[in-house]
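Thread: "does anyone have the structure for this chain?"

Original post by V.I.:
We have the sequence but no experimental structure in hand. Need at least a predicted one for the grant figures.
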Amino acid sequence: MTTTWVRGPIGRGADRRITKVHERTVLVLVPHMAAGTRLLDFLPLIERDDRVQVVFTIPETWETWYGIEEFTRGQGGLVLPWQQVLHHHFDLALAASRSSVDEVQAPVLWAPHGAGGVRPRLCSPGAGADAVPLHALDRQALMRDGRITVAALALTHDQEHEVLRRTCPEAWDRAHVVGDLCFDRMVASRPRRDAYRRALGVAEQQELVVVSSTWWTDSVFGGPSRLYRRLLEELPANRYRVAAVLHPNAWAVHGRRQIRSWLADSVESGLLLLPPEEGWRAAMVAADILIGDHGSTTRYGAALGLPTLLAAFPDEGIRPGGDADLLAQRCRRLELGGDLRAQLAEAAERWDRTVADALSAMLTARPGRSAELLRTLMYGLLDLAPPEHEAAIEPLPAPVPIT
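Reply from O.Q.:
Generated one for you, C-alpha cells below.
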C-alpha cells in the first residue's frame, strides 16, 4: 500500500515550505494512549521554544490500538506517516513505550508511561506460570542486536537506577533520575481542588468517591459489574458523588461506545465517567476517598493522601517490595458483600496517613523538580541552551466527564 507523505517542515523541499525557521525537530512516538498522555506532559517544556518544531507519529506494527489515530490527531499537532518518519533523521525522539524505538533515526529519550519503570507485576497475566519475570528496565527491553536502543532513560527513582545496574549495565550511564512529572502536576494542582470539584458538580457538603481501575480481568472494572450501581444505590446522593476512572487500554480494547454502554445505567444515575485522555488526575485531587486496585492510578491517588480501599487485587504475581505490594500490605480490602457506606466511613476514619508518605517516596525521588530536570535532559540531548525562564509545572486542566 502506498503511503502519502505529508508536506511538512522536514525532508526534501522543506526550506521552500516552512514559514518559521527552526533549529531542531522533535518526534513524539504515540503507539498507544497511555504513552501519548504521558509524553503530553513533557511537551510544554520544549514546544514553546521557537527553535524547536514538534511532530507526532504512530508507529506501524502488526497490530494497533483502537482509537490511537483519533487521539493523536486530536492533539492538534502535525502527524507524520510512519513510513515517512523512517526516512528522516530527527534531533530527538520522545518515547514512553518500547514500541519501535529501535527503528527511528534519532537519539531516543525513554520514560515510563505509568508509575515508575519497574512494573508492579512480575509478568504479564497471560504469560503463564513458567514465564521469566521482566520489567521495562530489562536487557530484553533496552537492547536490540547487541546495542542500546535509547540515548537516555528518564527514571523516577534512584532505586530504578540501581535495578538498571543489575539488569542492563550497558544502559546504566544513560539513565537520569528526574522524578515523576505526572505526580508533580497532581501535587501542584492541589490549590485547584475546589475548582475541580465544581467542574465535576460536587457540592460543598458532598464527598467524592473515585473508583479507579487498571485493565485486565483482575482489575476493579474486570470484577463484579454491580459495584458502581451499588455505590450509587447505597450512598445518599445528597452526601456523595461517585466517579469512575478506567485505564486507557480498557477503552481501546473494548471501544468507547461499549464502555459507555456497559456503564450507561450508572451514568444516568449520576456516575461521573472520566474519559481516558485526561481528567483522572484532577478527579483524584478533587476526591475524598478512593476505591481501587494495583494499577498506577490507584497508587497515585493513595500517594496524594486519599484513604484507599482495594476492591480488587491479584492473588499472585505482584513484585515484592514495590509500591503495589505496599498497597496490598497497608490498605483495607473492600468487602463487596458488606455495607459499602460503613466501609468507606471506617476507611476514612482509620486511614494511616503514613501510607501516602511511603508511597510518594517510592513514586519519585525528586519531588517537585521533575520539570526542571526533564527540561535540562531534553535540551542536553538537543544540544541547545535551555530557555532562561524557570521550567514550570503546569496545573492540570479541569475534568470533563463523559455524558
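V.I.: this helps a lot. Residues 115 and 296 are 5 Å apart (CA to CA).
O.Q.: and The chain is about 35% helix and 15% strand.
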